[in-house]
Amino acid sequence: MMAREPHPVMDREAPPEAPAPRSPRRPARRWLVPLLVAVLLAQMAAAMVTTAVQQTPTIDEPVYVGTAADSLHEHEIRYNPEHPPLGKLVIGLGVAVADPHYDPSFTGDQGQVGRHLLYESGNDPWRVMLWARLPVIVLTLAFGLVVFAFARELTGPAGGVVALALYAFSPDVIAHGSLATLDVPAAGFLLTSAWLLWRARLRPRLYVPLAGVAAGAALATKMSALPALPVLLALAAWSMWRHDPTHRRTARLAAGVVAMAVIAVAVVWVSYLVVDPRLRWSPRQHIPVVHGLRALLVDLMPFPEAYRDGMRVQFGFENHPWQGFLFGHLYTGSLWYYLPAALLVKTPLGMLALWAAGAVAVVTVRRLRPAAPYLLIPTGVLLASAMTGSRDFGTRYAVFVPMFLAVAAAGLLAARWRWAGAVTGALVLCVAVSSVRTFPFYLPYSNEAFGGTAKTHLRLHDSNVDWGQDLGRLADRLRERYPGERIWLVYKGSGVPSYYGIDASDPRTVPLDTVRGLLVVSDSSVAKATGRLAQLIDSSDSIDQVGHSITIYRR
Fold first, then answer.
1. Are 506 and 490 spatial neighbours (Cβ–Cβ below 8 Å)?
2. Peptide bond before 507: cis, by omega within 30 degrees of 0?
3. Do the beta carbons of residue 509 and residue 531 sit within 8 Å?
4. For a Cys staple, 175 with which of 201, 348, 423, 442, CB 3.0–4.6 Å?
């Protein structure tokens, strides 16, 4: 275990220990930490790029890619108002490099626009999707440096490496960081804001405005970041008070908090102005009417009309009776404990242990205690907010948890426990082994206590397991193992099977006794099967699995 380096932030809470005598090997050791950081980020990059290359579009990706292409060509916000434009501008960087042919005259909803771009406009969907995913991959790697820097400031270089290892081997972060989606960017910006506010304890004039930029970036990426804003503003006030607890603090605190809020709001406005300097808004979808407190909240928001309409769309989604699936039980509505239960299944066991031990250490170890509000309160508030949602679709709604708690987990090294270093190292190794074993199937990962990746579909559905990502793998499997056989397909996703050479029919549209040959069903559809589809599955024999997300039956 490496000794903690003195740091000015921590030294405000407790005096540093006397430095150890310099060793003749010290110059060589200076390269060890940068080398470990580079190795961890390199393996993460390799895992994400490999995943991005092999996976076909997931359900949400064509929406974001199509919206990004439309914004690039039309310089107007017309689709997907339920998500602000910054994340799609990031995706748009890759789309601009791919330079696909785009038909602005196409009339359809946001999902149809994405499919038309990828499959009906003469473009190569593999190439377009890879370029669209690459900017998110780069951003995910950059957030890894934030995790390292935050933990290093708390517990020294060894703690930084431990936190980065947990982040870099997190199956959820790898899975969603390799997609052209918005979950990881929004969570990463929130973590960055919290880290900058921690640093504001020393230099508030520099770091509070930067934290406002990061918080605004999160708000301009996903609206689910809104509950974190009051927490971040409170942390800004706390950091400034800790820096200068004088009688003049009231006015300065108020000014600093207001400045951060104004900067965050300004970033949201800038993200819309980048797309369209005239701020035109002509929605291509129905905008629901909201009432009561929700309507008042929307009207009070100091954001562009497109943002407020997006909030109305999100509230409309919350009123929909979605179906969920947890531990083999299909239900309508939502379960308040769904996300904690899903995280329990989809997080490596060593990581769960380190999260718990690190959280305890952050609260109980005196020199770490000042960091607890910056790590645990945002995580708790965001998780509580996500748990009240109506869509039990996956741990991607809580992808901020492995980011914040990776930093907290490093706190175990600061505990004066005899075997803390050895235990931490062993648990990190267990996490790495579990993560590497699931390569390259990170999306359907579950830990060994729940049967591993091959059994996830028995307990969870949707983006936890099957998000439409394995259509290309299915085409390869059918071509290699089942050439010439009749295919009946129930596919849940945004891909177009015929593009990949899959000639299939829908078994739900014909009499039961005419379905003969191979029945291929997405595991999310298996989880929610009722009526005719349930009868077909029950009277068939499971013979193969594709990507741990699609099951092949023989009839």
1. yes
2. no
3. no
4. 442
